[in-house]
Amino acid sequence: MMNTPKVYLVVFLLWLSSSTACQTQPTAETEEQQLSADLDRWMAPYRNEKKAEFVDWIAAGENNPKAALAHPVTRHMQAFVEENKERYLRLRLTGLEALPPIPEIFPGYEVLDLQVLDDYFQKDGVSVREVIDLTSALTAARTLGPGGTLASVNLLHIAVSDHLTQEKEMHLQEYVQLYGLGWLYFADLIKDTQWKVALVNRAFVIEYSWDYATGRIELLKVLVYTGGKQQPGWLAGRLPKALTPQQKLLNKVDEFKWTLYDHVYPDFDFREVENRQRQFLAENRAAYTALRNATLGRYPSIRPERWAEFVQEDLELTEEMRSDLGLFDPFGEHRLPESISINEFKYSQVLSTATYVLGSDNPGNGWMADWLLGKEVYARELDENLWEIQLFVGDVAFGYQWNTATDELNALTVRRKEKQ
């Protein structure tokens, strides 16, 4: 039996933490947005009348990978991919062609024997090959570009972190700090539909071949950081081609995170990091505000009758949400901290946090459902840059008001349906 936190759930959590990769501009209906919206509609029955079947699929994935691969939910997703094959091929190729070429050398890293990874996962009775095959199959429908492949391979992160902190005696805090500086993406054509992809993190590098037509990942290679400060400016400016305002801003964020290493490593001063984040946000505030407003403006308007179904405020979950969002002072200024705001291009950081908190006691309503099935979200503009947003997760609802230009976040509340 596979250990759930290690092999199945974690991959989705890690994907969400990196989900800004290879995003597209939200002010127009791009092909990627259209395909994603079509998939949301395709999977919608599992949020409603087929909810029990989705819960059963989650249980199958936790306990029996082969059962998960043969499950009707998996087949339903595979049918969508097959019906939209040309759209997937076009988007994936476009994403690959936008990436810069793979660096010739990775100074400061050493190759990790893959047996180390196999030994780690064999504790749960699976091999690295089986882990990647499983996650690739279960995430295929949402892999609209090369950034989506991170969901298939980033599960290796838990084995790499174990190796670096246990065998290489790296402090866990240092690993977390390095890992938190984000990813850079690179790709080279091998032949036909097969590309070599490299995902570079300050803590480790993952290289592999990806056949974007079949989704097959092979020729895995992992390199781990071995210490010693890297040369300032390494890989600076090596970013995807930016064709949209959101990609331009995303590139700026990735560049900011990556080069932050040059200024704060190895002695991370969180006050300096916060000051630099604050300055970055101030310099790019107009771009953030425009993207956020454009995204929120595409959602259906608030439905008062839907909110009225939830009459009981859950004070405990409300406070948990405040805490998880860094809004600790109930009488002070309620403003998103810089560490969240810098990744908040639209609303997803706040609502992903809410999905985790609200889904904790709602089977089938956690992060996997959030990603695979989409969200039930409503929004309306109350004033210039001031929005009211509502999210519904099973029998729980979350609402708040957000100023997209100042990051002030107020009227936060979690409510439940009245028990029958």
Give keywords:
alpha+beta; five-stranded antiparallel sheet; 420 residues; globular; disordered N terminus
Report on this model:
By secondary structure, the protein is α+β, with helices and mostly antiparallel strands. Helices cover 47% and strands 18% of the residues. It is built from 20 helices and 10 strands. It has helices spanning 4-7, 9-17, 31-43, 51-63, 65-70, 72-83, 85-97, 114-122, 128-139, 150-153, 156-167, 172-179, 245-264, 270-283, 285-296, 304-307, 315-324, 338-341, 348-358, 367-373; strands at 109-111, 183-191, 194-201, 204-211, 217-225, 310-313, 376-383, 386-393, 396-403, 409-417. The strands form 2 sheets. A 5-stranded antiparallel β-sheet has the order 1-5-4-3-2, with helices on one face. A 5-stranded antiparallel β-sheet has the order 6-10-9-8-7. A hairpin with a 5-residue loop joins strand 9 and strand 10 (409-417). The radius of gyration is 21 Å and the shape is globular. The two termini are 38 Å apart. Mean pLDDT is 86; it is low at 1-28.
